[in-house]
Amino acid sequence: MKCRSCGKKAAINMRHHKLALCGEHYLEWLPGQVEHAIRKYRMFTRSDRLLLAVSGGKDSLSLWDILWRLGFQADGLYIGLGIDEGIAYSAESERLTRQFAQERGLTLHAVDFPREYGKSIPALAGRSLRGQEKPCSVCGLAKRHVMNRVAREQAYDVLVTGHNLDDEAAVLLGNTLNWIPGYLLRQAPVLEASRPGMVRKAKPLCRVYEREMAAYALLRGIEYVYDECPFAAGSNTNYYKELLNKLELDRPSAKLNFYLAFLQAKENGLFAPQADPKAENLHSCPTCGQATTTPGDCTFCRMLGRIHRGP
């Protein structure tokens, strides 16, 4: 397989785009694709201050590298969750994230969750869920809380995440199979800060395949944590990704078409305008000040309160 641009041996063949490129031209092509998505969905501009959530994985570190190369003002936020189930997962993730930032002279904010909130995510989940479920829901709640808090406190214009096309398509499939209108309504490349206490969010990799991000990291020499979170095995999201991978194998571009057709259907009025009862009840949490729809404290503060009070 030869590179379409120069005829040299291709480093990657993207069947969904009917495009093969050598390493040099791929490293030019992918940032252009990301910038196109940023412009198309009006995510942010070069004058905006961006806070990028970085985990030490290929997607977030590669996105940070791309934004840096494109000239955007992007600082990083690493949240140490205390997940060290036999493989020092959090410790290694933080080491690689700090190394990446130092090599490029980038600013990194780091939040040590166990030190700041008193418990690691596994310990917090064990108490909150009584060991009946994986800690993924608690982890997601905690990360959203911390990301929004830091972005607000540091006055960033946009909170950026490294969710790729595989992530977005898997979430879309799960929400469609289970027909969860609220989640479908809110899934988008950009989530506006429509209420006080909320920060604008953007996903520049929403049209980029996970495989493409892995190739970018390899070709750029970006060292990232290869191990998956030890609690992710058997998750619904991974199951939906496996189903979509099988479909993509037989029908290249199936994931991209699925996701883009959904966005187009939304734009064409798939969801009729209607009042959101939860949005009408939105108020500031009296404990942390973040936006919430639950009476009194937000879900995160109520969870922490229950944990620290004990049985």
Order of helices and strands: EEHEHEHEHHHEHHEEHHHHEEH
From the 3D structure, determine the CATH topology of the largest domain. Answer: Rossmann fold
Strand content: 5-15%
* Total separate domains: 2
Low-pLDDT segments: 128-132
Helix content: 40-55%
Mean pLDDT value: 89
Shape: globular
**Integer-rounded radius of gyration:** 20 Å
What's the level 1 CATH class of the largest domain?
Answer: Alpha Beta
How many helical elements? 13
Oligomer: single chain
- Derived structural class: alpha/beta
CATH superfamily of the largest domain: HUPs
Sheet having the most strands: 6 strands, mixed
Number of strands: 10
Provide structural commentary.
The chain is of the alpha/beta class and 311 residues long. It is built from 13 helices and ten strands. The strands form three sheets. Strands 5-4-3-6-8-7 form a six-stranded mixed beta sheet, sandwiched between helices. The radius of gyration is 20 Å and the shape is globular.
Task: Give me some keywords for this one.
311 residues, alpha/beta, Rossmann fold, two-stranded antiparallel sheet, globular
Which helices and strands appear, and what pairs or packs with what?
Blueprint: E1 12-14, E2 19-21, H1 23-40, E3 49-53, H2 58-70, E4 73-80, H3 89-104, E5 108-112, H4 113-117, H5 121-129, H6 136-153, E6 158-160, H7 165-177, H8 181-186, E7 190-191, E8 200-202, H9 210-220, H10 236-250, H11 254-267, H12 277-280, E9 283-284, E10 291-292, H13 299-309
Parallel strand pairs: 3-4, 3-6, 4-5, 6-8
Antiparallel strand pairs: 1-2, 7-8, 9-10
Helix pairs in contact: 1-2, 1-9, 2-9, 5-6, 7-10, 7-11
